[in-house]
Every structure is written in structure tokens, then in C-alpha cells.
Specification:
79% of the residues lie in helices and 0% in strands. By secondary structure, the protein is mostly helical. The chain is built from 9 helices and no strands. This is TetR/AcrR family transcriptional regulator. Keywords: DNA-binding. It comes from Streptomyces xantholiticus. InterPro entries: Homeodomain-like_sf, HTH-type_TetR-like_transc_reg, HTH_TetR.
Length: 197
């Protein structure tokens, strides 16, 4: 039987701090997705999260810190959900990967990418974040699809699938094209099945 340490006074404060941080991250992603970079200030995010601007700046000293952390946080949450998908048929995997690029996270990330293309201090952070998220998504896709990347063309097929999913996400920003997307997903699932068989 181990020694039980009594709870400290710091635990509740640490819990509050973690909850505040999470609320700020979720509010930042929602703001980016809804109003874009220009409308997403630290003050707007703090108000949406129900915390003071000072509390927001305690957790995230700069606007860039807040928004890159927010996109990274939600990307990790989404990656975790993908990692937990059971092995299933490839059409369901293709559909799940496409869903990754058609939701609010993708919309928020896209606003961040556009801002980074014009803001020197943001560009390296977003480029690094996108590379990290892209590598992780590729790894997860390979595992879920049961793909053997030592075979010719398999790596390119998986990357093509992710690029196609990103393109569908871009199209979804302007119009909800769910019926066409469903047909494209079915076609890509057939191509993936044929290539990976």
C-alpha cells in the first residue's frame, strides 16, 4: 500500500488554470472559424471564454501564442479521435479523414494560414504547426488504412487522399456540397482499396 499524500492548496488552482486555458483555446478556435483572423482578438476570445483579458494574457502572452496553441490543441484532440477509431472498412476511414477537413478546425486553421501568409512573425509558427499536424495525420491515415508504404505508389496514394480531403474542405467553406462530397469519398475509397489491396 502506497503513501497517500494529502491534497494541496495548489491542486484546485491548477485545475482552474487548466480549465481557463482550455476555455481560451476552444474560444479562440471558434472565433477564428466564425470571424477569421481580423475579428479574432485576444479581447474577443477572452470575453467569449468568460475570462478577463489579463487572464488570457497570463496564459498566452501574445495573440500569435493564443491562436497557434488553439489550432494545435484542437488538432491534437481531432488526431486523438482519429487514433481511437477502430479498424474498419476503408470507405469509413476515407470518410473520417475527409470529415477532419470539413469542420470548424479546418476553417480556423485556414484563417490562421491566410494570416500567416501576410504576417512575418506568425508564418514560421504556423508552418511548423502545419508540418507537425500533417505528419501526424499522415501516420494515422497509414495505420487506419492498413497501408504498406514500402510498396510503390502507396505513400503517394495516402498523401493524395489527404490532399483531396483538404480540397473538399476548401470547397465546403463556400457551400455545403455534402452530396457531391459523398460521391467523391466513395470513389476515393474504391481507388484506395484498389491501390492498397
Amino acid at each position: 500500500m502506497g503513501v497517500v499524500t494529502p491534497p494541496t492548496a495548489k491542486a484546485p488552482k491548477q485545475d482552474r488554470s487548466r480549465v481557463t486555458r482550455q476555455r481560451l483555446l476552444e474560444a479562440a478556435v471558434a472565433c477564428l472559424a466564425e470571424v477569421g483572423w481580423a475579428g479574432s482578438t485576444v479581447s474577443v476570445v477572452a470575453e467569449r471564454a468568460g475570462v478577463s483579458r489579463g487572464a488570457a494574457q497570463h496564459h498566452f502572452p501574445t495573440r500569435e501564442d493564443l491562436f497557434t496553441a488553439a489550432v494545435e490543441y484542437v488538432a491534437e484532440e481531432r488526431s486523438q479521435a482519429l487514433r481511437e477509431l477502430p479498424s474498419q472498412d476503408r470507405q469509413a476511414v476515407v470518410a473520417a479523414l475527409v470529415d477532419l477537413y470539413t469542420g470548424p478546425l479546418f476553417r480556423a486553421a485556414l484563417h490562421l494560414w491566410v494570416a500567416a501568409s501576410n504576417e512575418e512573425q506568425l508564418r514560421p509558427r504556423v508552418t511548423e504547426l502545419e508540418a507537425k499536424v500533417g505528419r501526424e495525420t499522415h501516420r494515422i491515415a497509414v495505420r487506419l488504412l492498413g497501408a504498406d508504404e514500402s510498396r510503390p505508389g502507396v505513400r503517394e496514394t495516402v498523401q493524395g487522399l489527404l490532399d483531396m480531403a483538404r480540397g473538399l474542405g476548401l470547397a465546403n467553406l463556400l457551400t455545403d456540397d455534402a452530396a457531391r462530397r459523398e460521391r467523391v469519398v466513395a470513389q476515393w475509397a474504391a481507388l484506395v482499396q484498389e491501390t492498397l489491396a
